[in-house]
Design a protein that fits this description.
Helix content: 25-40%
Shape: elongated
Structural class: mainly alpha
Radius of gyration: 28 Å
Distance between the termini: 86 Å
Number of helices: 3
Number of strands: 0
Strand content: under 5%
Largest sheet: none
């Protein structure tokens, strides 16, 4: 995956965070579902991880990675392109969603014999 990522180059004299560390932060966020702000410090500043994730989404980096990995898996015979799509739609009347409206009268008590 590394050759498919953008070149590591410091911008504006700052220290560039390693791609591996940042990608691991992205994977951690995806697996746990935690907010960006709750990323553990071992992945670096959460803002860096978030900014790079969105920048790569915008510039097409994720699409290039997906395409390359799919091509590699397909060439190795590890990808099954069989797809099954099923869609069932049952339309109901707008009044079918709730219980019967109105008030119900209690039934009369049975007569004692």
């Amino acid at each position: 995956m590394e050759p498919l990522l953008p070149q590591v180059k410091p911008q504006r004299g700052g220290r560039w965070r390693d791609h591996r560390q940042v990608v691991e932060g992205m994977i951690f966020k995806d697996r746990t579902g935690c907010p960006w702000r709750d990323l553990p410090e071992r992945f670096g500043p959460w803002q860096t991880v978030q900014h790079r994730f969105y920048r790569w989404a915008e510039d097409g980096t994720w699409e290039r990675i997906l395409t390359a990995l799919q091509a590699e898996a397909d060439a190795a015979g590890e990808l099954d392109w069989t797809v099954s799509v099923d869609s069932t739609i049952v339309r109901a009347h707008q009044h079918a969603a709730g219980a019967k409206g109105g008030s119900r009268k209690p039934s009369a008590a049975p007569e004692e014999a």
